[in-house]
Amino acid sequence: MIWVLLIFLILLLLFLLIIFTKLTITVNYYHYNDNDDFKIEFRIWFGLIKFKKHIPLIKVDDNSPSIVVKGKKKKDHSSKKSSNEEVHQITPDDMMTNYKNTREILNHIIGMHVIIRKFFRKVSIKQFEWHTMFGVGDAAHTGVLCGGLWTIKGGIVGLLSNYFNLKEMPILQVTPHFQATVIQTQFSCMFQFRIGQAILAGLKLIKFWKGGRPKLKSNTNFSKEKTKSV
């Protein structure tokens, strides 16, 4: 009886630990002309357990109207590390299928906007930086377009402050380049929430689910190239 009670207490403590654990997600994106680099990291317990996803290349396929995505993922558990390389080809049909599947799921959930908005208010944005250098080779056109970029960035920050909990003032910068044609942008964001809050939002989505099973379509146009281990 004592062993049963002890196991129950251990499982309860483990459950409470997971519920109150904060998940930190860091997103970094860099673009310079035709070069792209995207990194996302999930971290809990001060980095003791973390998962990294790196997509160093996003380009348009020369032989078909599709996007080729080459990525690396890295998983850390204490001292154990593993990584592999993945190559996917995303076609317009794949994007249309994902859009239809998302719309199908939304149609099966009552009041999803309210549930998602309440969850977003629990998410804290602890870092937000967005630096851009832009130029089209003409000083007048560059000045007008840079003004438009400031407007777009301000609008995005306004939406974030309306839906999320901004902990720090966002850092925004637009640098005009009047002598050459250049597009360079660097974006980094860190947001954090408790795993229990995400679980609660998921339970609410299940609770307000209506109808039967949604009719989802699968993507069949991914590249046939297999995942490569590194």
Description:
The chain is α+β, with helices and mostly antiparallel strands and 230 residues long. It has two domains: 1-26 and 109-210, no CATH class; 33-98 and 211-230, no CATH class. Helices cover 35% and strands 40% of the residues. The chain is built from five helices and ten strands. Mean pLDDT is 77; it is low at 77-83 and 221-230.
Number of helices: 5
**What's the total count of β strands?**
10
- How would you classify the quaternary structure? single chain
Class computed from helices, strands and strand pairing: alpha+beta
Radius of gyration: 22 Å
Name the beta content range: 35-45%
Mean pLDDT across every amino acid position: 77
Order of helices and strands: HEEEEEHHEHEEEHE
Helix content: 25-40%
**End-to-end distance, in Å?**
49 Å
The major sheet is characterized as: 10 strands, mixed
- Spatial shape: elongated
Number of structurally distinct domains: 2
Q: Give start-end ranges of low-pLDDT stretches.
A: 77-83, 221-230
